[in-house]
Input
Amino acid sequence: MASVYSTLTYWLVNHPNIANFTWTEGETLGSTVFFLSVVVSIYISATFILRNVMASLPSLGPRILKPITAIHSLILCLLSLIMAVGCTLSITSAPTTRFFHATCFPVDIEPKGPVFFWAQVFYLSKILEFGDTLLIILGKSFRRLSFLHVYHHATVLIMCFIWLRTRQSMFPVGVVTNSMVHVLMYGYYFMCAVGCRPRWKRLVTDFQLVQFVFGFGILALMLSQHFYGSGCSGIWGSYFTAAFNASLLALFFNFRSKNYVKKTTEMINKLA
Ligand SMILES: CC(C)(COP(=O)(O)OP(=O)(O)OC[C@H]1O[C@@H](n2cnc3c(N)ncnc32)[C@H](O)[C@@H]1OP(=O)(O)O)[C@@H](O)C(=O)NCCC(=O)NCCSC(=O)CC(=O)O
Output
């Protein structure tokens, strides 16, 4: 057990590429406002154009689409697991780190080291998640190309960029919780793609909702340290995250009530 822990800690925290990582604006991959604007603009316009083009074309058959979808989901499921473990170990194994440090960086923190490395991987993984939208469009599953989906995929990238740029204090907890939820979510998508649809879809949605509520708990903890302590880094980044969290909470409540609560009520009414 101890050797598994030390091996993981070496490869996910202490490896020189991770331990010596520095996020430098203009040098690190994807670290400019220009890059972010181009990527988000391409995502939104390509989604809009491809959706209209595909409306008049036949969908890609399931024999081609399902294996690609399965591989894409499996990659994101495994990557999410690695990010969750890597970021957790980075938080817990740092000599100066306590839980409170993971929710409140000192105001003069340098964007260096393992926690920033995992935030960068998390940021880039959100570009890989754009593949979800492409798969939905190619399969002409337009019902699933909802406002929630496109808004989430575009805005989450902006949020991750702001996390790195402002050294937002709550991001370590954000990386861990969202990656854990995405292990479950991409596990669910993977199983759907290989033809064994799990019965625990609702659990995935509930965990997504719990992560947003939990985010507000962490925000309260951070704000108390910010206003009654010596201050926390990236307060404006935290406000952006809180606003995004609130919008997702509302959209997911709506999704939940449409997909589960109404269906359950309809079933009860049919049985009565
Ligand atoms: C249970 C959910 C995760 C998914 O709900 P859905 O209604 O979209 O699920 P569903 O049952 O229709 O999905 C199964 C279908 O998705 C296909 N599928 C498989 N892998 C996929 C992938 N990587 N991206 C998109 N679709 C994929 C399967 O082949 C299957 O198709 P077929 O049916 O043809 O067999 C839900 O909680 C949810 O998040 N809904 C919002 C929609 C969304 O876009 N969510 C993801 C981004 S938001 C997010 O990620 C928030 C967060 O950060 O936590």
Summary: The chain has a mean pLDDT of 93. The two ends are 55 Å apart (CA to CA).
